[in-house]
Structure formats: C-alpha cells, structure tokens
Amino acid sequence: MENIILSPGKYVQGDGAINNIASYAKAYSLVLADDFVMGLTQEVVQASFSDKGLEVAFALFGGECTKHEIERLKDKAEACTCQMIIGIGGGKALDTAKAVAHFAGLPVVVVPTIASTDAPCSALSVIYTEDGVFDEYLLLPKNPDVVLMDTGLIAKAPTRLLVAGMGDALATHFEARAAAKGQAQNLAGGVPTNTALALAKLCYDTLINQGSMALAASEAGVTTPALESIVEANTYLSGIGFESGGLGAAHAIHNGLTLMEECHHLYHGEKVAFGTLVQLVMENTPKEEIAEVLSFCNTVGLPTHLWQLGIKELDMDKLKAVAELACADGETIHNMPFKVTPEKVLAAILAADRMGRRGVS
User: Fold this and answer.
1) Quick check: 52 and 23 in contact, CB under 8 A?
2) Does residue 168 contact residue 32 with C-beta atoms inside 8 Å?
3) Is 254 in the active site?
4) Hey, how many other C-beta atoms are within 10 angstroms of the C-beta on 334?
5) Are 244 and 193 spatial neighbours (Cβ–Cβ below 8 Å)?
6) Residue 126: predicted pLDDT
7) Average pLDDT estimate for 15-41
8) Where in the chain is the domain with CATH 3.40.50.1970?
9) Options 102, 173, 254, 305, the catalytic residue
C-alpha cells in the first residue's frame, strides 16, 4: 500500500492577512459568506480586489450546507462566470464553498474566521438536510487551493471556539500514532507518511507548550506569537495530521456521544478531548502521558469527565448505546491496533471519567 499525504495548495496565516486576499485569488471571484461575516469582511475584500484591478462578486450563504444551497450558489457562480470561489466564515460556509467550487469545476480559497476545527484544510464537505440533520460526507478530489487564516479576525472570536479547536487538535497525535501502529488507511486511501506523523506530534507539542498563553491572548482579543502557533496547530498541523495520519478512537467516541442529548450544547472539539482521554485509557498509555493531557485540559478548560460534558447521572443503558455507536461498522475506532468491542469502550469511558474527576496525580 502506498504512503500518501494530503495538503492544501497554499497555507497563508497572519494578522491582517485578509487585506491581501486578492493576491492569492488572482482572478474574478465569487465570495460566499453569511450576513454577519459579510458585514465584517466585504469592505476589506472589495478594497483588496480593487487595489489589484480585479473583479469580485458577493453572494450570501444561507447558513446551512445543504444540497439545495450548494446547487443555488453553483448556479450563481456559473451565471456570473466567475473563475474562483472564496468562502469566508465558519465550517458550514467553508464546506459549502468547497462543494460549490467542486461542482462548478473552479479553484477555491477558504478563509476561516474561527480556529475551532481542523476541517478548513481537508478535502471534505459535511452535507446536512434542510432541517440541519447530518446527511452525508462529500469526499472531494482535492484539498482547497488556498487556506487563508487572518489571526486578527480569529483573535476577536469567542475564546471557547479556540479552546474547542485545541480539543480537536489534541487527538491528532494520538489517533495518528495508533492508526500507524495498526497500518490503517488514512483518508487518502494510503498509510501515513513520516511527515504526517511528525506534523501530528508537532501539533501536540505546540498545544502543550503554547496553549495556555494562546488562551490568554484570545481572552484579551489580541494576536501574539502563542496565538499564531495555536491557530496553526488547530488548523494546519491538525488538518494534515488527521487527514494524512489517520483517525482512531477519539473521534469515534465523539460520534457516540452525539447520542446523548446532554452533550448537544458542546462543540466538536470539546467532545473529542474527552474521547482522547478514553482512547488513552484503552491503550493503557503511561500515566505520565495521561497526566500531561489531563493537566492541559484542566488548564485551558476542556472537559475531562462526564459531569463536565453535561452528563450528571450515569445511565448505563445510555452509555452502552454510546459505546455501541462508537464501535459501529466503518467507524474509525477500528483503526486502533487491537480489537475493540463496546464492552471495552464502556469500561474505558467509566475509567476515564473517574480519572478526570480525580484530576492529575
């Protein structure tokens, strides 16, 4: 089996980066964003294109990445004969932009306004129904042509979103490490390269060394070297690490937790952080490693036990259902380098919960 690595064509990051967006578009572009983000960015995007003597058009994103919305915006792109799609905003706006560009046969630039997940760099769009229910994953033939991160914009976003991104990124090293041990396929259909594994480890090291300082910068709404490092870790390092390294138990535990109504208020990365602890228990990793992860989570404010997830009572039937869903056919938990069963997952959830309650020891 081949070793395969995936990555965006270009990754650009810096305070005020959106001011130079036309330098990376270099063509007549259609900008997609929701009403709030459009109000925040349209003037500066228009100015950048005007400075370069390029045309730009704007279209409002409806708020949900649905097949109908993708088709509507694709028709608009074709009607205005643009040569590039630019998506600005959160995950659903970016996923829509990637899908529109794919079906219109155009290059795409994505401009995240938050750093809450590693999805911007991926060759994937998550499609929902008109009611906002998950529909399907749209696997794309290539990653975005340009990912542009304006850390000045991101620093002004709610701090909880940056912390959730750290939770998502926290799993990257451990899942890639486990997938590599089991020679599991990554999302490119190959096995992880040494580069992907090294980036996944760098992602983890960056979180441990820079996370608390980035948290302080975000709380103050300012850009610092630590915030820059964490934005890169949350987005690029984690993005390459998960897509080219591989996924494991942590994200499958997240998917299982979606059954719990008590967890519906949580962001993706907050659930993934607890899933990471569960995975480490399943692997019987050295206590020093678990202590370091627990300490990090406690420092930045990521949940480490069920109570913090909103699960106030241990309903064993519900937790069994979580474990069973985490072990469903095709789930990434089967990339672990040992046989996984719902019984093992339930035991690890309960043990991780007790360790989280007890704290670092």
Assistant:
1) yes
2) no
3) yes
4) 16
5) yes
6) 85
7) 96
8) 10-154
9) 254
Phi, psi (deg, nearest 5) at residue 197: -65, -35
- Tokens representing residue 124 in the block: 């994937």
Q: Which is the catalytic residue, given 15, 251, 305, 353?
A: 251
Average pLDDT (145-173) is 97
Task: Determine the pLDDT at residue 133.
Answer: 64
Q: Which homologous superfamily does the CATH classification assign to the domain defined by 159-358?
A: Dehydroquinate synthase-like - alpha domain (1.20.1090.10)
360 pLDDT tier (thresholds 50, 70, 90)? low
HSE at residue 146, side-chain half, CA atoms within 13 A, is 24
Which two three-digit tokens encode residue 137?
């994953």
CATH T-level fold of 10-154 = Rossmann fold (3.40.50)
Q: Give the integer Cα–Cα distance in Å for 284 and 290.
A: 9
Q: How far is CA 337 from the centre of its chain?
A: 24
For the chain, the average pLDDT equals 94
**102 in catalytic set:** no
- Count other C-beta atoms under 10 Å from residue 295's C-beta: 14
Give start-end residues of each CATH 1.20.1090.10 domain in the chain. 159-358
Contact between residue 291 and residue 360 where contact means Cβ atoms under 8 Å apart: yes
Report strand pairing: 134-139 vs 124-128.
Answer: antiparallel
For 25, 60, 176, 189, the CA distances from 339, given in Å and listed in that order, are 47, 47, 17, 21
Q: Which pLDDT belongs to residue 113? A: 96
- Computed over its alpha carbons, how large is the radius of gyration of the chain? 20
Cβ atoms < 10 Å from Cβ of 359: 12
Alpha-carbon gap, residue 2 to 152, rounded angstroms: 39
State the pLDDT confidence band at 98, using cuts at 50, 70 and 90: very high
The residue type at 145: D
If you average pLDDT over residues 212-239, what whole number do you get?
97
How far from the centroid of its chain's Cα atoms is residue 5's Cα?
17
| pLDDT beyond 60 at 361 | no
- For the four alpha carbons of 154, 124, 341 and 175, in that order, the dihedral sign comes to negative
The catalytically annotated residue of 168, 173, 305, 353 is: 168
